[in-house]
Each structure stands twice: as structure tokens, then as C-alpha cells.
Amino acid sequence: MKLFDLTGKVALVTGGNGGIGLGMAKGLAEAGATVAIAGRDAAKAEAALRELGPGAIFVEVDIAKAESCRAMVARTVERLGRLDILVNNAGVNNRKRPELYEPREWREIIETNLDGPFFTAQAAYPEMKKAGGGKIINVGSMTSIFGVPFAAPYASSKGGVVQLTKALATAWAPDNIQVNAVLPGWIDTDLTAVAKRQVEGLHERVVARTPAGRWGSPADFAGIAVFLASAASDFLTGAAIPLDGGYSAQG
Question: Which residues are identified as catalytic?
Fold first, then answer.
């Protein structure tokens, strides 16, 4: 369907070399976009590039540093000619009770999960405006909806991502730039594999509460990425959409 066709578009996906980011990048590539994935691990990116096919590129970035975010966008445009779609996916977590975090641990999570998306979107804005519009997809979390006792800085950063999404959406709507957020539930990734080891009984509790009866997979994010990156979502902006198998719909 033409509404979902991304042929000729260029997408930049931070943290696109694995997990949810790679799931979204694959969806965008399959819909016709040329994809740049950004991260710190070039070796891991090589495997991801093979999955994405010809034309995909890797751009190195330290997402917690504003100057690196700006350089990432500049290199993407230099190599691929333009920027139409930005997926702010890169993130970190460190699970422990709130009283146990050191100041540096708090700052690391906030700088990566909230500062990074802001500075990257800031750098992408003039390129999207030049192109006549664009799409920004911020990856939040269901922890922006629920209180989580072992992820205070992560939840704070992801709550900030939701509010950042709304602020950017209202600021940039006149420039035909739509900004939306996806709120993943419990998804099988390398990060949640660590959580399963750290939090006893987590797997069983997640499955029991999720109406879909399973954990999500990165492949579940291909469709929402294409929808939010395409003309099909041109009148949708400032939204935060749970993608969690119904987890947040349960009372």
C-alpha cells in the first residue's frame, strides 16, 4: 500500500544494531527506506547490516554526548544525502533499589536515555525541515506508566521521553514533522535477559499478567515503526503508544 511505502526515505535508528532497534530498522528497510544504524559496537553492527541488506550503513556514536549526536546526524546526511526518519532507541538501564544508586549511575542513565534523544532530535530538525517534513519515533517504556521499584532513574528518563515527545510534536508540527513515542512492554532482548537473572520470578509474572500470554519480540516493532514513519501517520503526533501485548490495559 502506497501509504506505507518508504522508498526514497532515509532513516537513522540509534541502537539499531540489536534488540528493538534492529526490529524497527528491519521494518523500515523492508518498507523501502535506506537505513543508518548508530551505536558504539561496530562488530555487533556488522551482523545487523547483513540482516538489513544493501545500502544500510553504520555510524558510530556516543549517544550521551551532544557533540557526538550532532556528528552522527551530520555523517548520516553526508553519506546518504538526507534525513527523513529518526528513531531514538538507544538506551541503558541499571536495576537496583533507588537508595542504592550512586550519582554517576543516575547521570549515566539520564544522559543516555533522555539527553541523547533530545540532542539527536535537535540535530535532525534542520535536515527534516529542509526535506519538507519528517518523522521522529522515540522509544519510551511502560515504566513511564507504572511505578517500578528497581528502575527509578530509568523510569524517570522514560517519563521524560514521553514529555519530550509531546513538546517536540507541538513545536515542530508547523514544519510537518510528526513526533510520537512507542512504549515497549516486556520484550525479549539482551537487556531483559539480564533482568530475568536479576529479578526472581520475573518471567512467570510477566507471562501471567500479559493478555497475549507471552513476552514480545523485536520483530513485533517492525509494523509500528513503518506506520509511524510513513504517510499513514501524518495526522498523528504527540502520542505515546504502548506496545506490550495488553500488559498496561490490565487493572
Answer: 154
